[in-house]
Write a structure and sequence with these properties.
The structure holds two protein chains of two kinds.
Chain A: H1 3-13, H2 19-52, E1 57-60, E2 79-80, H3 82-90, E3 95-108, E4 111-118, H4 121-126, H5 147-150, H6 159-165, E5 175-178, H7 180-186, E6 193-196, E7 199-206, E8 217-221, H8 222-229, E9 234-235, E10 237-242, H9 244-248, H10 251-258, E11 263-266, H11 267-310, H12 312-320, H13 325-363, H14 371-397, H15 403-406
Chain B: E1 2-13, E2 16-28, E3 33-37, H1 44-51, E4 59-64, E5 67-68, H2 74-84, E6 85-88, H3 100-110, H4 115-128, H5 144-155, E7 162-166, H6 174-189, E8 193-197, H7 201-204, E9 209-214, E10 217-220
Parallel strand pairs in B: 3-8, 3-9, 6-7, 7-8
Antiparallel strand pairs in B: 1-2, 1-4, 4-5, 9-10
Classes of the chains: A alpha+beta, B alpha/beta.
Bound molecules: adenosine-5'-triphosphate (ATP) and magnesium ion.
C-alpha cells in the first residue's frame, strides 16, 4: 500500500462528494477545448476556402446571408442570368473574370450528386457585345499585385485550368466534367458516358483532386443545367475574379451600382467577419473557462474543508501512527491532483467530442483533436484544484494529533 | 525507559487555569506494565499524549531512552512514534475505508516498507490475533471485539518497543475485554513496555503496577487486585 492507494480508496469510498467539483472543472475544460478546437479548425477552413476559391468577389441574391458563403452556390436562391450580361456590358475595370453558377441536385446511377452549371469562355466570346471581355484571355501584367496569380486566365480546355481558374474554354451541351470524388464514386473516366436528367452526357474530363467541394461535384454547361432542371435562365451566384486593388477600392460600389438588386460581397469581408466571430468565440471560451474553473475552485475548497473536518479522526490516527505533516498534506493535495487530472482529461475528451459533433453540424467544418488543448486543460485544471486545496490541506496537517484520544 | 521530570501541563480557559498535569515526576522502566488510574479529568489522557510525543508539556523534561522527546522536531517525533510506539484506542480508530489488512499495513506504509512485505506481515499479525478469516473486511463489517483485535494487530506492525493504550477495553463487554487483555499481556511478555489508562479495576489488575492520578498528581498505588 502506498499513499496513492490510500487516496484512491478514500475517494472511492464516497465518490459523490467530489462529483460537483469534478463536474465544474470538467465543464470548464470542456467549454474551452470545444470552442478553441472549433475556432482553430474554422480558421484553417477559412484559409483553405480563400485559397481554393479563385474568385474574390461574389454576387449573390439579396437574401443570402454571410453564413451561406461557405456554400455560396448551394443556398437554393437564384437571380436572373441576365445579371451576367449586365456586368459584362458594364466593362468595369478590374474585373478579370465572371463565373456564373447554378447548382441543382440530381441522381446519377443512384448517387445523389450536385450538378453545377458553368459558362465556358466561348459563350462570352460568341456574343460580339461581350468582346470587351476579351481582355480576360489576353495576358495580364505581372505588375498588378495579386492579379498575376489570382487572375491567371490563360484559359485552355485542360481540367487543370478549370480546377485552378474555374474557367474553361469550351463545354458542349451534352458534356460533363467530373470532380475526382464523383468520378471514382461513379466509376467513370474521361471519354465515358453518363445519364443525367435522362440525357446522355459525355465525360469531357475528370478534375484532379483539389481537396475542396469541387471534388464532389459534376460540372455541365449552364444552359443545359437550366433547361434540364427546369430552373429557367437563373444562376445562384456570380463569382468574380477581380484585381485585389480594385476589389478593395471602387469596384464593389461600382458593382453594387450596376446590380442594386443583388448582394455584392468581397471574400475579404466574409473572412473578416468570420475571423472576428472566431476571435470573439475564442475570448468567450476563456471567460467560460475562467468562470467554471472559479466555480470549480470554490466547490473544491468547500468540499475539501468539509472533507478535512469529516476525516479529523482518521487524520489524527494517521498522525499518531507516525504520519508527518507532509504526509497529511500530500494526502489532500494528492486528492486534488486526482481531481484536476480527471477533470482535465475528462474535459478534453468531452470537449473534443463536442467539437467533433458540433463542428460539422453547426459550422460545416471538420475538426480533429488538438493535443495542445489537452496540455492547457490538464495544467490549468490541476493548478486550480491544487490551489483550491492548499488551505484545507494545511488545516489538515495542522490538526492536533491529541484529538485521537478525545474525539469519540 | 521513560523519565518524566516535574512535568506540568496547564490549560487556560476563560481566565481559570487547569492543571492537567501538576509537577509530575515518573520513571517507567523497560518492559514495565503500568496501569494509570484515576477519576475523570485527572489528567490520564494528557499524560498519555505527553508520553506519545504528541503534546509538548508546559514545563518539565521528558526523555525516552535518554533522548529528550520534545527537543526533537515534529517530523522526528512522528518517525519515533512510527518506529517505537504503538497505540491502542478506546474507539479502536480504524480507518473506515480500508480493510482490516490495510489498516494493519498503515504504520508499515508510513515508514516506506515494500508493499508485498506490508501485506505479508499484516496477514501474519492478523493471524496472531485470530482474524485470518476477516482480513478483507472493513471495520464496519466487524464486531467491536474484532475491531479491537485489528487495532491490536496494527499496534504491532512496526514491532514497537512501547505500547500506549487509552481505555483499551472501555468499549468492550467482559468476555471480549478478557480477550483483549490477554493479548496485551502477551505483548508485554514479548518484552514490550505497556502504559495503559483505564477506569476499570479488573483491567488494571492485568498490570504489574498502578499509578493513580489525582488532579494531575501521580501516586504509586502498587499492583491492583481484581475485584
Ligand atoms: N485541549 C484542552 N484544552 C483545555 N483543557 C483540557 C484540554 N484537554 C484536557 N483538558 C483538561 O485537562 C484535564 C485533564 O484531562 P484529561 O483528558 O487528561 O483527563 P482524563 O483523566 O483522561 O479524563 P477521562 O477519564 O474522562 O478521560 C481536564 O480537566 C480537561 O478538562
Ligand atoms: Mg481520558
Amino acid at each position: 500500500m502506498k499513499l496513492r492507494n490510500l487516496i484512491f480508496k478514500e475517494v472511492w469510498q464516497r465518490p459523490t462528494s467530489m462529483l460537483t467539483s469534478l463536474i465544474a472543472v470538467t465543464l470548464g475544460v470542456m467549454a474551452l477545448v470545444a470552442i478553441q478546437n472549433i475556432t482553430i479548425f474554422s480558421e484553417e477552413k477559412i484559409n483553405s476556402d480563400m485559397e481554393s476559391l479563385g474568385a474574390n468577389v461574389l454576387v449573390m441574391p439579396p437574401d443570402v446571408t454571410l453564413q451561406d458563403y461557405y456554400a455560396s452556390d448551394l443556398h437554393g436562391r437564384t437571380m436572373p442570368e441576365e445579371y451576367v450580361t449586365r456586368l459584362a456590358l458594364a466593362q468595369l475595370s478590374g474585373v478579370q473574370n465572371l463565373a456564373p453558377k447554378l447548382c441543382v441536385a440530381t441522381t446519377v446511377d443512384g448517387h445523389e450528386i450536385t450538378l453545377t452549371g458553368i459558362l465556358p469562355k466561348n459563350e462570352f466570346q460568341k456574343k460580339s457585345s461581350w468582346q470587351g471581355l476579351d481582355m480576360l484571355t489576353s495576358s495580364v501584367g505581372t505588375d498588378r499585385g495579386c492579379c498575376a496569380t489570382l487572375a491567371n486566365t490563360d484559359t485552355d480546355n485542360s481540367p487543370e485550368s478549370l480546377a485552378r481558374t474555374r474557367t474553361i474554354q469550351e463545354l458542349g451541351e451534352r458534356e460533363v466534367i467530373l470532380g475526382s470524388d464523383v468520378a471514382s464514386k461513379l466509376g467513370v473516366r474521361r471519354g465515358g458516358k453518363l445519364i443525367v436528367f435522362e440525357e446522355e452526357f459525355d465525360v469531357l474530363a475528370v478534375l484532379p483532386a483539389t481537396g475542396t467541394i469541387d471534388d464532389s461535384r459534376m460540372f455541365a454547361h449552364l444552359h443545359s443545367v437550366q433547361a434540364l432542371s427546369g430552373a429557367g435562365p437563373v444562376v445562384n451566384v456570380i463569382e468574380i475574379m477581380a484585381c485585389c486593388d480594385d476589389a478593395a477600392g471602387d469596384l464593389i460600389s461600382d458593382l453594387s451600382a450596376e446590380l442594386p438588386e443583388a448582394r455584392v460581397i468581397t471574400i475579404a469581408q466574409v473572412v473578416e467577419t468570420q475571423v472576428a466571430v472566431n476571435g470573439l468565440m475564442s475570448r468567450l471560451s476563456w471567460v467560460f473557462f475562467s468562470i467554471l474553473l472559479l466555480v470549480g475552485a470554490a466547490s473544491i475548497a468547500s468540499v475539501m474543508y468539509a472533507n478535512v473536518t469529516e476525516r479529523r479522526k482518521e487524520i489524527g490516527t494517521l498522525m499518531a501512527l507516525g504520519a508527518t505533516r507532509g504526509f497529511v498534506t500530500s494526502l489532500f493535495l494528492g486528492k486534488a491532483l486526482l481531481l484536476g487530472v480527471t477533470g482535465g482529461i475528462g474535459g478534453f475528451i468531452a470537449g473534443t467530442i463536442l467539437a467533433i459533433i458540433l463542428g460539422p453540424n453547426l459550422l460545416g467544418i471538420q475538426v480533429a483533436p488538438v493535443p495542445q488543448l489537452l496540455l492547457i486543460g490538464l495544467l490549468s485544471a490541476t493548478a486550480v484544484a491544487l490551489a483550491a486545496s492548499y488551505l484545507p490541506a494545511r488545516r489538515a496537517a495542522g490538526l492536533d494529533p491529541c484529538l485521537v484520544f478525545n474525539d469519540a | 525507559m521513560y523519565q518524566l521530570e516535574s512535568v506540568s501541563q496547564t490549560y487556560e480557559r476563560r481566565g481559570n487555569k487547569i492543571h492537567a498535569l501538576d509537577n509530575c515526576s515518573l520513571t517507567i522502566p523497560d518492559n514495565d506494565f503500568v496501569a494509570i488510574v484515576g477519576p475523570s479529568g485527572s489528567g490520564k489522557t494528557t499524560l498519555l499524549s505527553v508520553l506519545g510525543g504528541m503534546l509538548s508539556p508546559t514545563s518539565g523534561d521528558i526523555t525516552l531512552d535518554g533522548v529528550a522527546l520534545y527537543e526533537l522536531s515534529l517530523q522526528e517525533r512522528a518517525a519515533l512514534r512510527n518506529q517505537k510506539i504503538g497505540f491502542v484506542f478506546q474507539t479502536f480508530n480504524l480507518v473506515p475505508w480500508l480493510t482490516a489488512c490495510e489498516n494493519v499495513q498503515i504504520p508499515m506504509m508510513l515508514n516506506g516498507s515494500d508493499s508485498r512485505e506490508q501485506r505479508e506481515r499484516a496477514l501474519a499479525l492478523l493471524e496472531r490475533v485470530g482474524l485470518s478469516d476477516r482480513t478483507d473486511h472493513r471495520p464496519a463489517e466487524l464486531s467491536q471485539g474484532q475491531q479491537q483485535r485489528v487495532a491490536l494487530a496494527r499496534t504491532l506492525a512496526n514491532n514497537p518497543q512501547i505500547i500506549l493504550a487509552d481505555e483499551p477495553t472501555g468499549n468492550l463487554d467482559p468476555e471480549t475485554r478478557k480477550h483483549a487483555m490477554n493479548f496485551l499481556t502477551e505483548f508485554h511478555e514479548d518484552g514490550r513496555t505497556i502504559v495503559m489508562v483505564t477506569h476499570d479495576k479488573e483491567t488494571a489488575s492485568y498490570a504489574q503496577r498502578s499509578i493513580q492520578l489525582v488532579d494531575g498528581v501521580p501516586r504509586e498505588v502498587g499492583p491492583l487486585q481484581a475485584a
